[in-house]
Design a protein that fits this description.
The chain is mostly helical. It is built from eight helices and no strands. It has one domain: 434 Repressor (Amino-terminal Domain) (Orthogonal Bundle). Helix 2 packs across helix 3 and helix 2 crosses helix 4.
Length: 118
Amino acid sequence: MPVNIKETFPQRLVRLRKEKGISQKELATLSGLSPRMIAHYESQVSHPSLDKVEKIAHALSIQLTDLLGSSQTPVNLEPSDFISSVNTKTLKQFKKILELSPQDRSTIYRMVDSMLQK
């Protein structure tokens, strides 16, 4: 399944869920998350942590990279391999972002999504 790098995470989540013929409620049950959280992720109200993205990918029976939209990463890459392939500077920036308030993180995620759409 080709990955559209211009798609945002919420757009990919909606598309992949619908391609599997799964409702938000069914995805919530399969992933162990609440239907409200799935709806929030799909509407960009909040952004999931990596462990939640992994649960969603597993529930959809897809690779993590399919959901994250990394076209430069092999589709068969394991999550731990993906993390180790990210350079140190990027990992340090991720850590700083994770230390921000949820509202500030959400702002950064929206900015990144906007930049990736260009």
